[in-house]
Structure formats: structure tokens, C-alpha cells
């Protein structure tokens, strides 16, 4: 029988500034990389057209309507809300010496509003967003100089909000940089592997420097990483499938290994060597990486399968992460496989690997919600998605696909 949540369990939800705030150039904000991306496309850049109003420019207008949104979150019983400080509200071009006061003041108002309802902020420093100016002038995370600019940004917000925010994350789904370089590290999609991994290294060093700064500045502060939980199973018990599954799981676990253990694992050094990937790592970098995160956070939406059978691999689908379907699971119309037991498996895997507190900071079901005549949305399909399944991990319910994400977060302190 399921017990009650512990007294200090953090239950809540999540939004991201670049997906919710709108006001994309309000009060001194600069252009960010997602401001140049059309809806739903990773890595693409669209020139701005005078008078054009894209969906991210307004979004849900959280920038102006946050008080009523926070009140709704409180009605839902939220104890925690994850959101992002938009880097370009604080440093519009990314390399300024002094921050933008109007941007800092906005987040003061937001955190004060959350405090009125007893909702704790969980703040991500970079959620698929960086100043577009840094990509133009320095080449994004391909440049070591970006580490300096990120640390300046991190220290600025830690100092400003050290008495209002105690839980922090460095980079959202940091492992997605392998699949969407422009989105994750500000590089062109055609970048070669050495260039991508060098930029990822710079980001890992910057993350560690932010961890150190948080520990120095924020009294009682805790800071974690965030992984996209890309859980993969072997499609068969053939040893070749099992070995390839281990290799592909390491592709994303590598980011957690560095951030939680403080050094590059041996398997990654071998991967670099065997694939001719050159990454410049200095002695100072190695020292910086030793500052490790306090907890592991992750998103979880689906699992997938791995096989060395190329005919089976041709059936892979589902968003950016092309996964071989699991015949034992249902799927949404997006092709995202619905695997609640996978969440339990992933929690066990991550805790066994890292022995750190675990924080589920993003998950849920995307669906085309229909607004009824009375303004209500009958989303029983979403309630069913969140309801526990049977031991077999399969449901007889059918799911509607769509273009939205329902997110919830939960924290386990031990």
C-alpha cells in the first residue's frame, strides 16, 4: 500500500521562462537563442520580421500575469514551482559588466509572490536558453569565454536571491546538447563531434563553477544538475543488444557521472580516443569539476529499446530521441511510449549509481486539450496517465496525442 509523502516532500509543477513568460524584449531583455527558433523546431533559426508576433513572444504572458498564475498553482496544492531565470533579462547580450536591474526586479516580484503562498522556488539557471549575442560574438559554448560570462550571471543571481531561493539547477536536460546543439550549446547543427564535446566540456566546467558559487553564496542552498532521463532497455536478451544498450545509456549518464563524481569516467576517455574526438581539458578544468552537485534531477517521459538489428532500428521514432518501440507498452499519438514502471526502474538506477537525493522535475502527457463551451477541459486521459498502472506496466486506456506538456515535480530528500 502506498504511504503518505514525507512532511517536507516538495510537490509541484514547472514552467520555463522561454516557454511561458512572453515579453521577449520587455524591460531591457535581450534576444535569446529560443527567441530565434520557430515553434517546435530544435536548432532552426528564423530571422525576426518587423511586426511579426511568434508564439514565444507572448506565450501565456506569465511576465505580466504571474500573480494570478501563482494563485492557481497554490489552489492545486503546490509546495514547489520550478522555473527559469531568463539569462537575457539579467545580461541582455551575455557579456555586460553590469546586470539589468529591471530584469532582476521582475524575479524579486515573482519570488515574493510565491512566498505569499508558501511555494518554494526551484530555479534553473539555463533552460534551453542563452543570450543570442554570445552565439554571434563568441560562438556560444564553443568558447571558453562563455564560462566566465555564465559564472558572472550565476553569482549575480545567487547574491540577489540568496535569501529567497534555496534550490537551484544549472542546465536543463544537459545531455540534449548531443541531439540539438543549437538548443543546448549555441552551436550550428552541423558541428562535428569534437566541437560539440568541447562545448559540452565548457558547459560542464561552468556548471561546476556555479555549484561552487552557490555553496559559497547561498546560506543552506542546494544545487543540482538536470538530465533528460533517456532510459533504454535491450530489445532482446541477445548479448549484442545488452552491450549496445549499456553503451547508449552511457551517452546520457556520462553527464551525471561528471557532475556527481567530479571527473571524466574511463569509458568516456576511451570513447574520445576510439572516435578521434579531441577535447582540451586543462588542469584548472579538472580542479573545477571536483565541485559536485547536491542532488540529481531529471525529466522522464518515456523509455525505449535498443537493438543491433538494423531492420528493427528502422522502426525507431519519437521526437528527437529515436527509440525502437517496445511492443509491451502503449504510446501516445506522438509515439511517446507510456512506461510507469520505467520511472521506478530509472529512480533505482540513478540512486544506485549516485547515492544522491533524487528530484523529478519534469514529466507528464502531451495532449490536444479541447476547451468545452463552459471553459472547462475534461482531461481524464491525463488523470489516467498519472494514475498507477498494474504490475504488467500496460493499460487498456487509449491516449490522445497533442502539443502541450503537463509537468509536475517531486523531491525526495534521501
Write the SSE topology.
Layout: E1 10-14, H1 17-20, H2 55-58, H3 62-75, E2 80-84, H4 87-90, H5 101-116, E3 120-126, H6 132-137, H7 145-161, E4 167-171, H8 181-185, H9 193-217, E5 222-228, E6 232-234, H10 239-261, H11 266-274, H12 283-289, E7 295-300, E8 304-306, H13 310-313, E9 330-331, E10 337-338, H14 340-354, E11 358-363, H15 380-386, E12 409-412
Parallel strand pairs: 1-2, 2-3, 3-4, 4-5, 5-7, 6-8, 7-11
Antiparallel strand pairs: 1-12, 9-10, 11-12
Which labels suit this protein?
414 residues; disordered C terminus; 12 strands; 8-stranded mixed β-barrel; single chain; TIM Barrel; alpha/beta; two-stranded parallel sheet
CATH topology heading: TIM Barrel
Mean pLDDT: 88
Helix/strand-derived category reads: alpha/beta
How many H/I helical runs? 15
Tell me the count of domains: 1
**How are the strands of the largest sheet arranged?**
1-2-3-4-5-7-11-12
The sequence of SSEs as H and E is EHHHEHHEHHEHHEEHHHEEHEEHEHE
Low-confidence residue ranges: 390-414
For the largest beta-sheet, the strand count, sense and barrel status come to: 8 strands, mixed, barrel
Proportion of residues in helical segments: 25-40%
CATH superfamily: Glycosidases
Can you tell me the CATH architecture? Alpha-Beta Barrel
By DSSP, the count of extended strands is 12
Main CATH class: Alpha Beta
Distance linking N and C termini = 20 Å
